Amino acid sequence: MAFCLDGSQVVTQDNFTHFLSFINAITASLNVSENGTHVAVALYGNTPKLVIDFDDHFNQSSLENAVDAIIYPGSRLSNMGAGLSLVTTGLFNSNAARPNATRVLVVLTASKSQDDIEVPSHGLLTNSKVNIYVIGVGTEYSLGQLWEISSDPDSSFVETYIAGENLALKTSSFKKTLAIGIHC
Fold first, then answer.
1. Which CATH number covers residue 20?
2. Residue 13 has pLDDT above 50, yes or no
3. Is the CA virtual torsion 57, 60, 63, 65 positive or negative?
4. Residue 6 belongs to what domain range?
5. Res 180 pLDDT > 80
6. Which residues contact 59 (CB under 8 A, 6 or more apart)?
7. Mind listing the pLDDT tens digit for each residue in 143-152?
8. CA-based nearest residue to 141, from 174, 113, 106
9. Nearest CA to 68 among 24, 12, 9?
């Protein structure tokens, strides 16, 4: 399972902290281990950055410490397409990705992408066979872009919230959504 986080100024420090708490809450119910679930995290903004790779952490405590240490970049730009490209090449098509594992990406965003998202999202969905969930927070994202990059049906793979603190309230329902989507 990978997470791709919007690190632009639109997100705000508070919402970014809610994104990190959401990751910890979601992964806490998974079997994060060498033989279980592997978790990775990438950031995008001006330029994308891989901050946690699939083979970096094999227990929840280590993963949570690494997630909590991620620094809010506050980037001027929101280049989600570049982030999705990094996730494709740096995560799902890397040696750290296990070939027979279910591939899940959760994109957490608050802004409209300023670069092309069509080509990288198509590559993830078709070539890398990744289930893509997208969570939009606030009012400055493009719902059309969220639908474009998510797996289908959009109603099962796209969620939107007015504020980041609402993510904590929806963790258990998202876990159920995630479980249904993985087994579709």
1. 3.40.50.410
2. yes
3. negative
4. 2-182
5. no
6. 32, 33
7. 999 999 999 9
8. 113
9. 24
Taking only the tens place, the pLDDT of each residue in 30-76 is 889 999 999 999 999 999 999 999 999 999 999 999 999 999 999 99
pTM here is 0.93
- The total of structural domains in the chain comes to 1
